[in-house]
Every structure is written in structure tokens, then in C-alpha cells.
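Lab meeting minutes (informal)
Scribe: AK
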Amino acid sequence: MLSRTIMHGLSLTALAFVLSRPLPAETYYVDQSNPHSSDNNAGTEALPWKTINHAATVLRAGDTVLIKEGTYDVGASTGWADPAVGPSHAGTAEEPITFKACPGQKVTITTSGGQAAIGSGRDYAVWDGFIVDMTDRLKGIIIYGAKGCVVRYCEVIGNHLPTGDNHDGIRIERAPDCRIHHNVIHGVKGNGPNSAGIKVYSKGVKNVIVEDNYIYDNTAGAFDKDFGVQNTYRRNYFTGNRTQFYGNNQGGPARYYIYDNVFDGRIELHAGNTATEIHDNLFRSNSLAGAWAGGVTDTKIWNNIVISKARSVAACQNKKQELSSALAYMDYNVYDARPTYDFGEYTSNRQRLTLGQIQSEGFEENSHVVASAADVFEDESSYRLLPRWMTAARNGDAVGPEDTAKVLDVRRYGPTAIRP
């Protein structure tokens, strides 16, 4: 089967025959440093294109473009929901369109104006291995209205902007079934949680998977905002963010599956959140989960480890719900300090409970309080569990993340990661 690069030489009859069959996937190259590079080239390694923008107009389902080392200014985005560069065509689940930094080469993407640098409004696009510099911009990467997209092994370098508006390292909006993994996102700071390392936003966002990311030094590590249905957060390392995870504050319904993460701070759930599951995480903090707005009900919390190095732990707080509606299940957690439970502060029936009192309500019956981290782990480097905790969890398995040391290993994230 003939490639696209030589189809212009076919007769009309031959061209009609070729177009009646699927075109083969192509691998193209962009190398602005090559003295022979031009967007009029065929896009081969010997005769590469000059711009990522041109590649984005050519790629079809199954195609890959490899971008060689350099700093690429992709111009200005035309609107708040549009990246400066994204594919003109859609991929498929079996044959996505892939933009990839050449292995071992540093590819930085900047913009000359607008908002997001890269992303997609087309289904099944992949961005792999880039450094995105957000200097003076509100967004780094945006996936808007497109399903099945992937952002992996990228680094987003954020900025401080004195804004309460949407200001995101990676933004997933109206985009179901996307996967965000092995990225580093840092430095996205502003006047509130709208400045987020990762933001998942709006109706139509469901079954999004955010996994294996290193998210640090942002105002909010992740903000799942508005109708987040069955989104999963697992094996992420959240540290140094003002809020590690901030749940829906727009209405509802919202439900999250949050497990196998390391959080150096609390989870905050908000309005319209029902049956969220928080389990098998390590919290290096004096708090576990809280809910400040209304309608956070039937939360399920189990198998978490909280290392506070304090006298007490705020294990669960829900300011607008009483215990009877706030929790569906809470048990098999391990604390290194006295846990407290606070429900209904904004109601007429506030309940402030000790561990013994909440156990009398049927929760936390198999949870434990230990003296220190040394009673849970062999050390705070390997984070290997002591033998007693290997079978102390809800289903007779181990408490806490499946592999804490792996989550904390920052060498597994971003463009320079050693890939499995």
C-alpha cells in the first residue's frame, strides 16, 4: 500500500483505488534545528517539517509525529478552550494520533499569546514527553470536548498569576475517558483552588483516570470541579500544594475513586458528592478528609494510613451533614495520633466524636491508633510495612498504598522518566 507522501504521483484511477482502502499509519518528523526543515517537506527524518503546527494539520488516525530537541513557540491560542496547537483530525481508540518528543531529547513548548499551548478538541489524541512552559498563560494543556485523549510523561511548568479564574496546568473539560499519567505538574499558583495542577471540569467528564503523576507546589494539586462522575485518582504523589485534592463545588452529582496515593495534606470534598471512595492512601498530614459545602453523603473511607506526628488527627469532617448521612463506611484505618470526627457544624445538631464514640455508631471498629510511624513502617524511606499490617486491612490484605516507595520515587515521572 502506498504512503500519503507519494500519493500525489498516482493516476486518478490508481488514486481512487488507494482511497478505497485504509491508509497505512505514518511516522513523521519535526526538527526546526535541521537546516533543511520546511513545512513543504515530506516530513521524513531526512527532510523534516519545521513546525508542530503543520504536523497537526496533516496527521490522521494512527499517525505519529516525532519532535526533535528544541524550544518550539506554537503561536497563540484562538480561544480559552482551544490550544495553540492540536490535531485537525480525530484518531480512533485503536489508532490514536500521537505527538511525541523524540526519546532522550528535550522538547519545550511555549506560546506567544492566548491560553493553552497544546491539547486537543479531537478524539483520541496523545501528547507524550513534552515540557510545557506556562509563562504568563492561564493554561498549559487543555483537552476540551474530546474523548479518549492521553497526556503522558509531560512536565508542565506553572506560574503565579493573581487570579481567581480558571488557571490550570492540565485541564480536562467535557472530555470523557481520558487518561493523564506519569506527568509532573508544578508551580500553578493563584488566589484560590481554581489555580490547579490538574483540573477536571464540567458535565460530560466521566471515567477520567489520573494516575502516576507527581503534582507539587500548586495552589490546588487537583481540582475535580462540577459533575465529576466516576473519575479515578490513583498512585499519584501530591505534595506542597495548598490543597492536595479539591472536590466538586458546582453542584452534582460527583463521585471519585481515590486510592493508592500519597497525600502530604488532606482531601477536601465539596457539593453534590455521593459515595466517593477513599482507600489505601498514605496521608502525611494531621488530617484525612473533609467536606465544607453541602451534599457530601455516603462517603466510604478505609485502609488509609495517617502519619501526622501531631497529638490529634482530623480523621473526618463534614460541616453540612450529620454522621448518619455523611458516612456510608469508615474502617480499617491506621493513625499515629488520636483521631477526631466532626459532623454538622453548620446544622443544629453538631456531633464531635472521639474514636470510641464513632465506634459505638458502627464505624472504625477495626481501626487502630499507634504511637508513631515506626509502629507501621520499617523506615520512612522504603515505607515497607511491618508484618502485622500486611494482613490488617479490610479484606485481609495490606493497609496503605500498594507500593508507597514507588509512588514517592520522582524518577518515574515526566519527560526524563525511565519507562516500564
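Next up, CB showed the second protein from the same session:
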Amino acid sequence: MTDTPNNSPGRERIEHYISKEPFNPYAVEILTPEQERFFLASQWKMMWWKLKRHKIAVASGIFLIVLYITILFSEFLAPYGLQSRNVDHIYAPPQAVQLFNDGDLIGPFVYGFKFQLDMENLQRIYERDETKVQTVRWFCLGDAYNFWGMVPMRFHLFCPAEGGTLFLLGTDRLGRDILSRIIYGARISLTVGLFGITISFLLGLVLGGVSGYYGGWIDNVIQRLIEIIRSFPELPLWMALSAALPVTWSPIVIYFGITIILGLLDWTGLARAVRSKLLALREEDFATAAMLMGARPRRIIGRHLIPSFMSHLIASATLSIPSMILGETALSFLGLGLRPPITSWGVLLNEAQNINAVALYPWLMLPVVPVILVVLAFNFLGDGLRDAADPYK
């Protein structure tokens, strides 16, 4: 086109194309199935899609799920009973699982021990005896136990050979199998974190929600309380409160006492996170609309405000569980937490305080391995959940 409007030279006219179809205000753009799936997805579904891209977080979540399932069957999975003693194999080293003997495949087995006592160094000397081939038995009858303390049973996933031994992680000073005690201890150490975070989560939601929604003198009182609690050194405060528990209490009462202590001291960070979110969200239109419609503050907080950032709270709670597991382990290691006959990973590590024993029998430190793996798994999962819950990523 070379025509120029308004007789102004040098300006080219651009032709416009306008649809001559009548305007339909009710017409809806047709979405592809993939677009419809994305636009109609809930917040939780979108969070799951983002989490799946975090491979380490997904692997950590699967590992933790499997681990928590195993604590339901600790007695069945352990080859020995919790208090079973092998007095002839005190401080026995770990036995390696073998598959081949003299070039023949005979399945999983271990070699027996040759034992002698070094009277000069007062040390037990164990050597592998390759003439004693002890095949591992599967789905077998072994040490008697009470399943969940109620049902008498003797059925195990795997057992030592008849008259043989199966110490995959060695034994302790009383001849007790360390692997079996680690499996039993997982039930206590892992549930301490869950019960503790439940108490912490409830306190953080209630006090943080009230502080952020009402503000004023209520907010000042709660925030000063949080600052007082956070001003105390964490570990010495745990130690002082744990030492205050009477030694005459039963092991189960002490277990719940430690759990309550861990929960009562860990809610402050979550409460401040909830408060900061509510301070920003309480002025939003949906909160104002709920208030004008006559909703009570409790309903506004519980049904409208907190669910809008629940994904962030779950990520924060996941990152808090490792600190509680480490807290219980540290207290039990120092002798101020759980005490025998309750068995946890911290109680097992308490026996490794003697550096001479550790130097001679390093396998006594093996209970620290599941602690490290669980803490790392929770941290990886928490990082993945936090990234998935972030709307700006």
C-alpha cells in the first residue's frame, strides 16, 4: 500500500483485519487437554508435580516411608531378641555375608568364629573359621518375643544357622546383637520425632495464629514469651529438664516425658512463621469477605488463612523432625534421656562413650549410621517440599 492518510507524504498505511463475526460474550476458548489439566490442577497436585522433579527428595521420601513401615515389624525383622545374650561371643566383630564357598554357590552364609583370650592385653581375639559354614535361614523360628508386647511369637525374617551365629554388625559388652538392637531402637528414635513435631505443630499453629491475627497486646505477650524461650541455650535447657524427670518413673513415662520436652521447646520457630504469614494474609480480600459474612476468628484462621500456606508449614515441620531426633539421641547419649530397658539409637551410642572400647571395638559406633541417614533424608525431603511449595519457583 502506498496511499497516505490525511495527505501526509511519506507515511505508509497499514491495513487492519477485523473479524466480521458477531460478538458472543459467552464464547469460551477451547483448551487442549494438557492446558486444562494444568489450569484446573489443585495446589497440592501442582506441588506434587514440582516435587517429582526433585529426584533426591523423592528418593529420601521413599527411604523414610520404608523405614517407618519397618518399625511396625521390628520384632519380625530382627534376627535376635532385644535382650538375647550370647555370653560366648562378647564383643564379637561383624560377620561378613558370603555367597561362594570354594567356588560353589551355596547362598547367603557366614563363617563361624575361632575364639581365644589374650591374657596379656585382656582382650578377646576372634578369627574367622572357614571350616564352619553357617547358612542363613529365612522365614524361620528363632528367639521368642512378644509382638508389640502382646502376642507371643518366634517367627523371624532370617535367623542364624542351627547352633551358629549371625552377627552382621557385631555384638556389645553383653553379647547382644547390635543389628537387632538398632532395628528395635528405630521404633523409639523415629517416633520421638513424630510425636514431638505433633506437639510443636499444634502449639505453633495456635499461638502463632492468635498472635498474627489479633495483634496488639496479645501479639506482644506471645512474642516476648518466644524471645525468652529462644534466649536459653537449647541443649543445656533440654539437659536440665530431662534431668528433672524422676528416675523412679517407668520407661514408657520417661519416653513420653522426653517427647513432650522436645515438643514444648521447638514450637517457637513455627509460631513466628505462622504469625508472619497471618499478618500478611489477614488483610486480603478473602479474609475480609469471610469476616463481613459473619465468620468467627477461629473459623477464619482455621478454614481460610492457615490452609492457604499449609504446604509451607508441612515443609517446615519436615525440616524440624531431624532436630528432635538429634535431640533425643544427644540426651540419651549423655545419659539424661531415655534409659534402659528402653532401647533407642541414643541409648546404644551411650555404650560407646568409652574411647578405649571404641578403639578396640569400633563397631559399637555403628548406631550413628542410621541417625545420619535419617537426618539427611529428612533434610533432603524438607528442601524438596520447600521448593515445591514456593509459588515463585
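CB comment: The two ends are 48 Å apart (CA to CA).
No objections, moving on.
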